[in-house]
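Thread amino acids onto this structure.
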């Protein structure tokens, strides 16, 4: 008996599951190849390039999402949530009833005796809406009437990575699909030339923040990997291997991909693995991006007025300003979700120093993006979200006599985000924290509520868009979440 023949005749575990999943795999490939035909059944949003049958569930208010995610937790007490008590009781112990039984990070230690810390910069009201915004953010203040401030936000995690994962994927542990992955899974994309979900990262120069951008912040989890975010780099080619090697022509590359696709299709028929269909699709996307990305990143067609609006660093790759302008250009070209992540908002001992840098680097570009989208008529169907994973304590972390080292610790019990466009009411402040900014007390919004509201504006019922994994139907909002209809137009 030939041992090699015996081995080949044995069915491996992978073969068993692969061949038994033939129906699923074939359906996946058919969906990929027949996506143009599928779109005709759903008139509300173009689904030519992906998406699930029957989604959107209802007519959407927004077609695109731009999430300006501020890693590290911007201090609501110093930026958006004006509390006169903090000024009046500066240096006095925080009343115990406000934090009794609360869980804080280990850096806070025992909160007993923690001293109230006044805002570093003064606040003022802006626009016809009278929104309170700190002097730290004069540009965002100038568009206050276009924004909806949600001040009753609260969450559960007290450390950065679990809190970011919770906000972006609905779970503190890594492994769940992120918001952008869910959106592209449900809705597909309006372009075949670029990924449906794009991510860009930045960090202020000279910051002491040591946060890491983990890939699971934009991962696809248990969804097929074609729905994961594609990260555009801040230096060199935005995406690796955009250029063909010397001696390889475009037609040669096309022929090579066609041959590789045939081999992959043979494997697909053998195993029925949906990831093989993803591989075919991603090779095609990479080929098209060789032409689309250079055009996307060429800013020579932007007017001087537009470039100046985003600030002096707009043409410097890897800056938040550059990424904001790129976000606008991406959604113009049909990208479904753009996630910008700017790290450094972690002022444990640098409120009077590094917080100025963070605001300087992000204030003008954030406001410019809102203005630019509005100017181009894109804000109505683009939902812009600005915020971090939690807030920061109203009491000081450190020595109140050492102003240069003032800081605030992690704070999940109250924080602020703002939203613009995409059917959200402009010029509205919704929700309140208590007189110290310690706890959300009125019109509170949990992280799952925010997720449900974002999906609602995209035409998705957050309870109906699910994916079965390990015997359970999962969704972004887990088993929670309500749409915050009060902030919707």
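Threaded sequence (489 positions):
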């Amino acid at each position: 008996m030939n041992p090699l023949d015996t081995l080949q005749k044995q069915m491996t575990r992978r073969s068993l599951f692969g061949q038994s999943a033939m129906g699923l795999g074939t359906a996946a490939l058919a969906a990929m190849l027949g996506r143009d035909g599928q779109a005709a059944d759903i008139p509300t949003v173009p689904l030519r390039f992906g998406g699930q049958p029957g989604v959107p569930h209802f007519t959407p208010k927004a077609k695109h999402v731009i999430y300006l995610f501020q890693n590290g937790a911007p201090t609501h007490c110093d930026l958006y949530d004006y509390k006169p008590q903090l000024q009046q009781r500066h240096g006095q112990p925080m009343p115990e009833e406000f934090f009794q039984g609360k869980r804080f990070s280990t850096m806070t230690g025992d909160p007993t005796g923690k001293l109230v810390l006044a805002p570093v910069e003064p606040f003022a009201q802006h626009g016809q809406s009278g929104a309170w915004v700190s002097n730290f953010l004069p540009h965002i203040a100038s568009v206050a009437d276009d924004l909806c401030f949600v001040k009753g936000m609260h969450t559960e995690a007290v450390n950065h990575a679990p809190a970011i994962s919770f906000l972006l994927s609905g779970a503190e542990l890594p492994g769940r699909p992120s918001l952008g992955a869910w959106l592209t899974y449900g809705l597909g994309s309006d372009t075949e030339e670029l990924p449906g979900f794009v991510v860009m990262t930045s960090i202020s120069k000279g910051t002491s923040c040591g946060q890491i951008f983990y890939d699971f912040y934009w991962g696809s989890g248990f969804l097929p990997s074609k729905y994961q975010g594609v990260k555009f780099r801040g230096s060199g080619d935005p995406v690796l291997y955009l250029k063909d090697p010397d001696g390889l022509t475009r037609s040669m590359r096309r022929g090579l991909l066609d041959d590789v696709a045939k081999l992959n299709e043979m494997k697909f028929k053998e195993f029925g693995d949906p990831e093989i269909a993803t591989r075919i699709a991603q090779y095609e996307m990479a080929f098209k991006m060789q032409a689309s990305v250079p055009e996307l990143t060429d800013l020579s067609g932007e007017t001087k007025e537009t470039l100046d609006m985003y600030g002096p660093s707009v043409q410097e790759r890897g800056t938040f300003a550059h990424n904001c302008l790129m976000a606008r250009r991406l959604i113009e070209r049909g990208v479904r979700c753009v996630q910008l992540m700017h790290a450094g908002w972690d002022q444990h001992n640098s409120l009077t120093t590094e917080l100025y840098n963070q605001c300087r680097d992000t204030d003008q570009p954030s406001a410019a993006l809102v203005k630019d989208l509005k100017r181009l008529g894109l804000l109505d169907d683009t939902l812009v979200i600005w915020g971090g994973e939690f807030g920061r304590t109203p009491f000081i972390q450190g020595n109140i006599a050492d102003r240069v080292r003032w800081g605030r610790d992690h704070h999940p019990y109250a924080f602020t985000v703002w939203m613009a466009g995409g059917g959200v009411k402009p010029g509205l402040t919704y929700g309140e924290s208590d007189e110290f900014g310690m706890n959300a007390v009125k019109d509170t919004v949990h992280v799952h509520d925010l997720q449900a509201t974002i999906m609602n504006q995209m035409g998705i019922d957050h309870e109906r868009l699910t994916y079965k994994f390990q015997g359970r139907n999962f969704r972004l909002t887990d088993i929670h979440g309500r749409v915050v209809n009060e902030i919707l137009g």
